[in-house]
Specification:
It is a multi-pass membrane protein. The chain is mainly alpha-helical. The chain has one domain: Amino acid/polyamine transporter I (Up-down Bundle). About 75% of the residues lie in helices and about 0% in strands.
Length: about 525
């Protein structure tokens, strides 16, 4: 469905409240960037101290909830019905799952995170900074932060959307899940949820763009000698905005697919490059020990707080903002994952959706994190000092610059960062626009003007975040928007359980047969039975 007008299709109760709230945020950043940064930093620590227990426990529960779906009989449910065949091969499915859920975060946080944990581990870890134990802990914590918790959230939300779409033949929307929960349509609550998601998802995508802008700025500084500044960040933001907004407005499905393929190719090339030319023996040893440590301490990795050491803010700076950011993305990425669920059992769908991208992220962090520790401990490169001098976004470029042909791969990494964000922002801007319009499904085309507005909002918020405080402002914004969206995630989880309980008791897993065309029904009625 293609909408070409603005007022005719706009849902004002979803669009305007979220847009006005974002506008006020932008104005606050324009007129007083330092105060905004201080406010977000204070908000980060306040929410973490008061609600951190709730965020950590809810995140930890995701692992157990996924196991319930996999082990219990819910796993037998065939999405789309018993006779439906999968739309994609297993290989294509795995590739799309990895590519569709990786944004700029793993390029930014996952690259710089291990050196931070190595130098400044939390008190609860009980390790000495820059020690062997700190190195194992650092890689292990980063592996866990970027693997199973987030994909468990995405997978559980996806189960509900997949069943309500393919088995019950309802629209792929929050309204369908709310109807399942309450037993009747909830139009006002649906509008409220849409407005909340518009505000929060726009903020989340802006966060991803913010870290991408900082990473590109760091690469340009090391390659061309142009210092990072607000002007440089502004130019980078405008360029990236132009690319993903034009792609979104034009609906270039093939172009987006090619961008995603190029992104994966560059990622794998850089990964192979580091493995072959780096210290493979060291990376394999440290990565293996970190994996074992993660298996032994995954509960602690999820729930670390600052009990009896109130001056330690490590948990707020890291896991709290991670879990909150995953809450924000969970419903929408769940929608994306659900489109690949048709023809699979719930058990197989969750195994692929959770395990495959988690293993990829663990391998990626194991390689790059171990390489970072090697360069730091061997004295080849003082990455910890470089982080303080140039910012955490420089870590990956410091690693690449220490290897042969590093300059070429630094340039390739800058390109991959831009492409990675565009692959995320294109569909997210389309989703934001669709949620702002009445009577559209999640995969319909929204008005072009609304897509442009959403692209501009994402870019403006991203620049304000970076200019008002960089990394810390990004973290504070994630916690601010993550807490309310966690209740939407809880609603999606409840709907998933309720739908599975319904389908497991019904014939053909509750899959409703599609109504036949009028002509076919008439012919069937008039044809005599012999």
């Amino acid at each position: 469905m293609q909408a070409d007008t603005f007022d005719k299709h706009l849902n004002p109760w979803s669009f305007w409240p979220a847009t006005i709230a974002l506008g006020l945020f932008i104005l606050a950043g324009v007129f007083d960037q330092e105060q905004l940064g201080a406010f977000l930093n204070g908000l980060l620590y306040s929410l973490a101290n008061n609600l951190g227990w709730y965020i950590n426990l809810l995140s930890l529960s995701m692992i157990f909830l996924v196991l319930v779906f996999i082990i219990y009989r819910y796993g037998d449910i065939k999405i789309g019905g018993a006779d439906v065949k999968p739309q994609y091969s297993t290989f294509s499915w795995c590739c799309m799952t990895i590519a569709g859920s990786l944004g700029t975060g793993i390029l930014f946080w996952a690259m710089g995170e291990p050196i931070f944990h190595f130098a400044t581990p939390p008190v609860a870890a009980g390790v000495t900074p820059f020690s062997r134990q700190a190195a194992i802990y650092a890689i292990s914590q980063a592996m866990w932060d970027w693997s199973f918790i987030q994909y468990a959230m995405y997978g559980i939300c996806a189960v509900g959307f997949a069943i309500v779409t393919y088995n019950l033949k309802k629209s792929l929307s929050f309204g369908s899940l709310l109807e399942v929960i309450f037993g009747r349509p909830m139009p006002k609550l649906t509008i409220l949820v849409h407005a909340l998601i518009i505000f929060c998802l726009c903020g989340a995508v802006s966060n991803s763009m913010g870290v991408g802008v900082m990473q590109v700025g760091a690469g340009i500084e090391l390659l061309l000698g142009i210092p990072q500044s607000k002007l440089v960040w502004l130019i980078i933001s405008v360029c990236i905005c132009s690319i993903f907004t034009i792609s979104c407005v034009c609906g270039m499905a093939r172009g987006l697919q090619r961008l995603a393929t190029l992104k994966i190719f560059i990622f794998m090339s850089i990964l192979v490059f580091v493995i072959l030319l780096g210290d493979t023996q060291f990376m394999s040893k440290l990565g293996t020990e970190a994996t074992g440590y993660m298996i032994d301490h995954w509960g602690m990795h999820t729930t670390i707080m600052n009990s009896l050491v109130p001056e330690d803010h490590w948990f707020a700076d890291w896991i709290i903002q991670y879990w909150c950011s995953f809450f924000v993305y969970a419903p929408v990425i769940g929608m994306f994952f659900s489109r690949m669920a048709k023809g699979h059992t719930v058990r197989k769908f969750l195994m692929v959706s959770v395990v495959v991208p988690s293993v990829f992220c663990m391998f990626w962090i194991g390689i790059f994190g171990s390489m970072t520790i090697k360069l730091q401990t061997s004295g080849i490169l003082d990455i910890w000092s470089a982080v303080h001098t140039y910012g955490m976004q420089t870590t990956i470029f410091q690693i690449l610059s220490s290897l042969p042909f590093g300059t070429i791969f630094m340039a390739a990494f800058i390109v991959s960062t831009c492409i990675s964000f565009c692959c995320l922002a294109d569909p997210m801007a389309a989703v934001l626009a669709t949620l702002s319009v009445r009577n559209l499904q999640i995969d319909d085309e929204a008005p072009k003007l609304i897509k442009i507005i959403m692209g501009l909002l994402i870019t403006t918020v991203a620049y304000v975040l970076v200019a008002s405080g960089g990394v810390n402002s990004v973290k504070g914004m994630f916690v601010l928007i993550g807490v309310p969206v966690s209740f939407v995630v809880i609603a999606c989880i409840y709907a998933s359980f309720k739908l599975c309980e319904k389908c497991i008791r019904e014939k053909n897993y509750g899959c409703l047969e599609e109504a036949k065309p009028a002509e076919t029904r008439e012919e069937t009625r008039e044809t005599p039975v012999e």
